[in-house]
Amino acid sequence: MAAEAELFAELNVAIADSCIAMADAKYCYWSWRPITAIRAGDDVTPPQPAWVPLLTPPNHPSYVSGHSTFSGTAAAVLTEWLGARPFTFASASLPGVTRSFTSFQQAAEEAAVSRVYDGIHVPFDNADGLAIGQEVGTGTLGAFQRRDADRGPYLMVGGPWT
């Protein structure tokens, strides 16, 4: 039970950290979403003002993809804890649909590319999001592994004295 608690603690801290990294990138680069570019057109491609994506674009910058960043982070943490192994996923919100993956990384990559198919990201938003997520996940795991060595002296009150 302690191992599961530690896994979920590390996973949640890593995802929270990746949210900070993702928001930092979004508000540093202020990259527009595909809908803006497609509707505006350019010197080569005429504007398509009626174009709409499958999903309504979120009201924040495109780069980097949050889903990709979070998925990359989760893949790094889960792979470290559980290994690169196949798994199957089903959801009550999609009865009868089962997805199978060879690894957590494959699932993260599928989650990332879905945002391009939805029309709300371009591929580099996702590739860089996955990479940032992997880095944050690895960094968070390293911080947890160092926590005992980094801890200074502490006072234990009311414990067994030997």
In short:
The chain is built from 5 helices and 2 strands, in the order H-H-H-E-E-H-H.
Task: Describe the overall structure.
The chain has 162 residues and is mainly alpha-helical. It has one domain (2-147). The chain has five helices and two strands. It has a two-stranded antiparallel ribbon with strand order 1-2. α3 (66-82) runs antiparallel to α4 (104-117), α3 crosses α5 (123-150) and α4 (104-117) packs antiparallel against α5. The protein is elongated and about 75 Å long. The two termini are 28 Å apart.
Keywords:
two-stranded antiparallel ribbon, mainly alpha, 2 strands, 162 residues, 5 helices, 5% strand
Shape: elongated
Low-pLDDT runs of 5+ residues are none
Reading the helices and strands in chain order gives HHHEEHH
The helix tally amounts to: 5
Structural class: mainly alpha
Helical content class: 55-70%
Radius of gyration: 20 Å
Measured distance between first and last alpha carbons: 28 Å
Count of discrete domains: 1
The largest sheet, given as strand count, sense and whether it forms a barrel, is: 2 strands, antiparallel
Strand proportion, as a percent range, falls in under 5%
SS elements, strand count: 2
The neighbouring-strand order within the major sheet is 1-2
What average pLDDT do the residues reach? Answer: 92
